[in-house]
């Protein structure tokens, strides 16, 4: 398929408040696009993976805005039905992935991790390694559900951290096995000592839980029962391939969660207050933004 044909498949959408064209200095046509809310959430590990592999991509960010005295609205809601019809994808949801080269829309988070992971060379070197990636992505998504349940549904902080640690401890044991199979004291990759899609989702979830603990005057690692998790987090964020993303506004200026969330709905993390915080939502409606990394 020609470059022009690739560029025209889901090239733009008015429903996204911000469209980020991410490039690595060679002005290569982006073969993939990611669509998600204008938050970190599930979009962050996908974008971080693309940046680490230096794979150009388009990022469509959809804003949630206030409606009336207590409601919320988004241009995405009205656009979704048209997307389904135009692109013949009845499973449409956020996040979504646009494969421009093959003219396909991929939905469902872990399917997107797998599709983009393969495109980035970060989904294992063989069938067994790919299966490990799939297992880990499932476990980490269960972990995310714990945080999402708290952020959007409320509850006790101690209870949500305790529930999260049940998953972290499983991953701690996984890392112990990885350490046994390698000569590295610090494990910074979950599968065969190489970058893979679950690395990025685990990093983001550790960042999220760590921020929740800190916001409540606690330390996620205080009981010394997550030594591998702490070492992974510190080691992974220091890797040179991750610096472009971590130093960009995609990481530093987007909130963890959407504005109706009780935690992390403003950067900081702070909490968005309906009727008061719109002025602080500076990440909304940026239009088309070029983000060029060296």
Automatic annotation (TrEMBL):
<comment type="similarity">
    <text>Belongs to the GST superfamily. Mu family.</text>
</comment>
<dbReference type="InterPro" id="IPR010987">
    <property type="entry name" value="Glutathione-S-Trfase_C-like"/>
</dbReference>
<comment type="function">
    <text>Conjugation of reduced glutathione to a wide number of exogenous and endogenous hydrophobic electrophiles.</text>
</comment>
<feature type="domain" description="GST C-terminal">
    <location>
        <begin position="126"/>
        <end position="256"/>
    </location>
</feature>
<dbReference type="GO" id="GO:0004364">
    <property type="term" value="F:glutathione transferase activity"/>
</dbReference>
<feature type="domain" description="GST N-terminal">
    <location>
        <begin position="30"/>
        <end position="124"/>
    </location>
</feature>
<dbReference type="InterPro" id="IPR036282">
    <property type="entry name" value="Glutathione-S-Trfase_C_sf"/>
</dbReference>
<dbReference type="InterPro" id="IPR050213">
    <property type="entry name" value="GST_superfamily"/>
</dbReference>
<keyword id="KW-0808">Transferase</keyword>
<dbReference type="InterPro" id="IPR004046">
    <property type="entry name" value="GST_C"/>
</dbReference>
<dbReference type="Pfam" id="PF14497">
    <property type="entry name" value="GST_C_3"/>
</dbReference>
<dbReference type="InterPro" id="IPR036249">
    <property type="entry name" value="Thioredoxin-like_sf"/>
</dbReference>
<protein>
    <recommendedName>
        <fullName>glutathione transferase</fullName>
        <ecNumber>2.5.1.18</ecNumber>
    </recommendedName>
</protein>
<dbReference type="GO" id="GO:0006749">
    <property type="term" value="P:glutathione metabolic process"/>
</dbReference>
<dbReference type="InterPro" id="IPR004045">
    <property type="entry name" value="Glutathione_S-Trfase_N"/>
</dbReference>
């Amino acid at each position: 398929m020609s470059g022009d044909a690739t560029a025209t498949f889901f090239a733009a959408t008015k429903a996204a408040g911000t469209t980020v064209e991410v490039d690595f200095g060679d002005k290569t046509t982006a073969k993939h696009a990611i669509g998600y809310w204008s938050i970190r959430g599930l979009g962050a590990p996908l974008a971080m993976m693309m940046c680490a592999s230096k794979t150009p991509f388009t990022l469509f960010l959809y804003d949630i805005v206030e409606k009336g005295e207590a409601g919320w609205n988004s241009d995405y809601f009205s656009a979704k039905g048209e997307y389904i019809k135009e692109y013949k994808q009845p499973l449409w949801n956020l996040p979504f992935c646009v494969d421009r080269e093959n003219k396909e829309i991929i939905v469902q988070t872990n399917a997107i991790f797998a599709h983009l992971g393969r495109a980035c060379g970060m989904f294992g070197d063989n069938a067994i390694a790919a299966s490990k990636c799939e297992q880990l992505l499932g476990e980490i998504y269960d972990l995310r559900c714990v945080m999402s349940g708290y952020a959007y549904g409320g509850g006790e902080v101690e209870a949500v951290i305790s529930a999260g640690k049940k998953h972290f401890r499983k991953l701690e044991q996984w890392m112990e096995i990885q350490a046994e199979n390698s000569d590295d004291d610090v494990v910074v990759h979950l599968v065969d000592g190489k970058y893979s899609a679950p690395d990025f989702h685990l990093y983001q979830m550790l960042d999220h839980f760590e921020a929740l603990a800190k916001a409540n005057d606690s330390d996620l690692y205080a009981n010394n029962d997550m030594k591998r998790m702490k070492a992974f987090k510190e080691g992974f964020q220091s890797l040179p391939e991750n610096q472009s993303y971590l130093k960009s506004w995609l990481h530093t200026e987007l909130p963890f969660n959407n504005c109706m969330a009780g935690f992390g709905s403003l950067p900081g993390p702070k909490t968005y207050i309906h009727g008061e915080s719109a002025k602080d939502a500076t990440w909304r409606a940026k239009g088309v933004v070029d983000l060029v990394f060296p």
